[in-house]
Specification:
The protein contains 10 helices and 10 strands. It has helices spanning 12-20, 60-70, 83-90, 110-143, 153-164, 167-174, 185-196, 214-231, 267-278, 280-283; strands spanning 4-8, 43-45, 49-53, 74-75, 93-96, 104-109, 201-206, 234-238, 251-254, 259-261. The protein has a domain at 4-110 and 205-283: Rossmann fold. Mean pLDDT is 83; it is low at 177-182. It is α/β, with parallel strands linked by helices and 285 residues long.
């Protein structure tokens, strides 16, 4: 499904006239002006999967932020790039289609994934601490005389409970939550994507491969492809991952050269290819 059909940035001339109207002396930066300034405005046509590729510093994340702000995308991490950024975005243009089916526009960054992993680790640590406390509590109730708790109904009830149960059963029943996530960070990150991605939506993803092994990147690749095929999602992605760069039926914009390219034409893919080609015999032993 295609919801966002195209998005147009400012030309060099348009940037110049816009900057003339600003009080430049007040601000220390005019970001993102001049980052995408060409004779003709950059006009991106979108497919169900559109990928922005390029070296660090080429503007991939900036472009995603421009698109997200213009589309008023929902996001977990708020940004404030300043008055110039907002002014630049206000002069960009875009075209949506199939809006009657579009339920959500959301931007998800690598920072969102890291925050999710940290939250899960904190929950797990809290649960582990509570388990230790309950083990100590179980032993205290089990081996003390009932007369010590005769005037406290709750403690007496716990004493009876400890006498009837094993330690593991006591801890399990007294723990408010037992939902410790035992997966690796990569597996937990995959759960994050399964939780966040819904049907009939646009998702703007900034380097979603972070925290994922090669195997899990391939799983994410299939998940994105299935979300497009079966759940009418559209994805706009910035990535360095050779696996995500090979998403089926994706269009790739190389921001190093401001042009469309095939997967096999990308500099990083050529580098991988040459590296493994020179070591081909090591895989054929």
């Amino acid at each position: 499904m295609i919801y966002l059909k195209n998005f147009q940035l400012l030309s060099e001339k348009e940037e110049y006239h816009l900057l003339l109207d600003e009080k430049r002396r007040i601000f220390n930066t005019i970001y993102p002006f001049h980052l995408f300034a060409l004779d003709q405005p950059l006009n991106f046509e979108f497919e169900p999967i559109t990928i922005f590729y390029g070296d660090n510093g080429c503007g991939k994340s900036t472009l995603l932020n421009i698109i997200a702000l213009k589309l008023q995308a929902e996001r977990k991490t708020t940004i404030d790039k300043g008055i110039y950024f907002k002014n630049y975005v206000s002069h960009c243009s875009y075209r949506l289609q199939n809006q009657d089916q579009l339920r959500e526009i959301k931007m998800i960054t690598s920072e969102d994934i890291f925050d999710y992993l940290i939250d899960i680790q904190a929950i797990n640590s809290s649960v582990h601490r509570k388990k230790d406390e309950l083990c100590e509590e179980f032993l205290n109730y089990k081996y003390q005389d009932s007369s010590n708790f005769i005037h406290d109904y709750e403690q007496l009830k716990n004493k009876v409970d400890a006498n009837k149960k094993t330690m593991s059963a006591y801890v399990r029943d007294h723990l408010k939550t037992n939902n410790i996530i035992s997966q690796s960070n990569g597996e937990t990150a995959l759960l994050f994507w399964e939780k966040e991605i819904q049907e009939n939506a646009i998702y703007i993803l900034d380097e979603p491969e972070n925290s994922l092994s090669a195997t899990n990147q391939l799983k994410l690749k299939k998940f994105i492809e299935d979300s497009v095929r079966f759940f009418n999602c559209q994805f706009i992605i910035s990535t360095h991952s050779p696996f995500l760069l090979h998403l089926n039926h994706a269009i790739i914009y190389d921001l190093n050269d401001f042009c469309k390219k095939e997967w096999s034409q990308l500099d990083s893919i050529q580098t991988y290819y040459q590296f493994f080609k020179e070591r081909k015999e090591e895989f054929e032993k």
